[in-house]
Amino acid sequence: MSILKDIKLKTKQAIETLYVTSIDEPAITVNLTKPEFEGDYTVVLFALLKPLKKSPDALGNELGKYLVENHKGIFQSYNLIKGFLNIVISDNYWIDFLQKNYNNENFGRQEISHKKIMVEYASPNTNKPLHLGHLRNIFLGWSAAEMAKQTGNDVIKTCIVNDRGIHICKSMLAWKMFANGATPKSTNTKGDHFVGDYYVKFNDAYKEEVEQLISQGSSKEIAEKEAPIMKAAQQMLVDWEAGKPDVIQLWETMNSWVYEGFDATYRRIDADFDKIYYESKTYILGKNLVERGLQKGVFYKDDDGSVWIDLTGDGLDKKIVRRKDGTAVYITQDIGLAVDKYEEYKIDESIYVVGDEQNYHFKVLKLICEKLGLPYANAIYHLSYGMVELPSGKMKSREGTVVDADDIVEEMVSIAKQKTEELGKVKDFTADELKELYETIGLGALKFFLLRVDPKRKMIFNPEESIDFHGFTGPFIQYTYARIKSVLRKTNVESFSDTDSTIQNIQHSQLLPLEKNLIVLAEQFPSVIEEAAALNDPSKIALYIYELAKSFSSFYTELSIASAETEEKKQLRLKIAGQTANIIKTGMHLMGIKVPERM
Q1: The domain 3-89 is classified under which CATH number: 1.20.1510.10, 3.30.1360.70, 2.40.30.10, 3.40.50.720?
Q2: What is residue 404's DSSP assignment?
């Protein structure tokens, strides 16, 4: 149990004993004491005054005195400031906590809850490579899944690949028109980049045809509809849905090129999935649910034969769920796929990591599932996030202005190499060790920068700013970890002593503020994970780990470890360092970031 929860519990017990009355624990508010006041934690008294019929001073003094007298191993002293009971936690409590946890590499992991959570992320299209926006999506989804695991849940990582539709046919048609039989292998090009180039070529050719038709007297609207290349792409889509063999064969071949490229990117950024769904296999799902909805009166049929749902009474709009020709629309597929996921895995929660431009779509999805009475309706959760932009502005894949994921990773590794060499501390590394280090720093910087921001916020990504060994960055935290490991190696970490006399001597020595601050911060780690997991917000962990690393830097600058005043102090500081390193490693892992043993 965390000290915060323990204070709440013991305050509740004190009230029940002192005033012979029960009070709900949520009514008891405990916060960290503000820096300008003496104390570690503060009990806010105002909500308790009326039910207990006490003045702030009377209640504060009675509670404070009871807690200190009856729990001497936890509470050392208290003071009152205008309705706030500030409590000082005993040094012995913090030292006991350190003794129990300093070498626990699993500190922060909760007991198994048997709750089953599915996290869907990535969702790429097979007409182009992964780009910077995908990276935020993938890192956020992977981190949400790992945080859910850390808090005791059974997690399934999934991906839905958008491998059908007009956008796919555009790349296919452009390849037929312009490639002259070229392949990724013949051009020495990564498969997803190769196919993406033809998506751009289609758009360039389409623009030329539209401009030509306009110059011949057509309106822009008509020109965009009548451009021959667009009509050919639409016909290819019809042929694909009809199963025309040559179209299917080309589709399978080009998709295989893309999947090979995707897999290489996923391996490099350490992304993985337990199950991959393909839109080409799921797009007809949900048709039976439309019929069920018609029978239940949830849906209605329009005069032209299309099927709709009226959500105006729920503050939304009317939404089509089946076209007049009987084909499914995207929302129908999503309903069907949700059923498929639930029936296969019996999940308790289904988290969709999708950009905030789809907020309306997921409101509609959840509402339709509720009206259909589907068992997983309340399990649907849209983890919405803001778009990533570059300092130059928005990216557009059709115009070829998107920053490909592979290119940004390569640039990050290159910047990591340059900045590490400028520090000049890796001269004893082998070539292979340097390569691994640059990859670790570059990817760590990228992931930390994209995850340190609240997911709901739009963000601007600046590669140079993300690699700084002194700021709110991944490399700063990685460097702090490597420094701790160096200290532990130099001072022979195996010399940790757990004899009773050593523990007793440590407990009778007063903690210095910098020592205590690190232990107090460490104790908060499980609560930070719990909050971050509940909100699906890894930025909470990023900020916490940064504060921990920053506090250790101050500790290390001001206090000697190897030459501590006494052997007991040396042991204490070694254990503080060891615990800090373990927490940094775990926290960074939850964001998908590796930490190097040397830097």
Answers
A1: 3.30.1360.70
A2: B
Residues 556, 482 contacting (CB under 8 angstroms)? no
**pLDDT score recorded for residue 522:** 97
Contact 18, 69 (CB under 8 A): no
Whether residue 396 is predicted with pLDDT greater than 90 in this model: the reply is no
- Give the model's pLDDT for residue 492: 74
DSSP states of 532-554: HHHHT-THHHHHHHHHHHHHHHH
Tokens 């009326």 locate to 50
Domain boundaries, the chain: 3-89, 118-279+326-389, 287-325, 405-589
Q: Which CATH architecture has domain 118-279+326-389?
A: 3-Layer(aba) Sandwich (3.40)
The answer to whether the beta carbons of residues 595 and 585 sit under 8 Å apart is: yes
pTM (predicted TM-score): 0.92
Of residues 112, 267, 101, 139, the one with CA closest to residue 590? 139
Q: Where are the alpha helices (DSSP H) in 53-165?
A: 56-70, 91-101, 132-150
Closest CA to 518 of 579, 562, 592: 579
- Please give the average per-residue pLDDT across 496-510, as a whole number: 55
Nearest to 347 by CA among 308, 381, 307: 381
Taking the CA atoms of residue 426, residue 432, residue 436 and residue 437 in that order, the dihedral angle to the nearest 10 degrees is: 0
- Determine the Cα–Cα distance for residues 12 and 5; give it in Å rounded to an integer: 11
3-state secondary structure 326-361: CCECHHHHHHHHHHHHHHHHCCCEEEEEEEHHHHHH
pLDDT digits (tens, 9 = 90+) for 176-188: 999 999 999 999 9
Fold category of 405-589 in CATH? Isoleucyl-tRNA Synthetase; Domain 1 (1.10.730)
Q: What are the distances in angstroms from CA 389 to CA 133, 366, 415, 457, 458?
A: 8, 29, 20, 11, 8
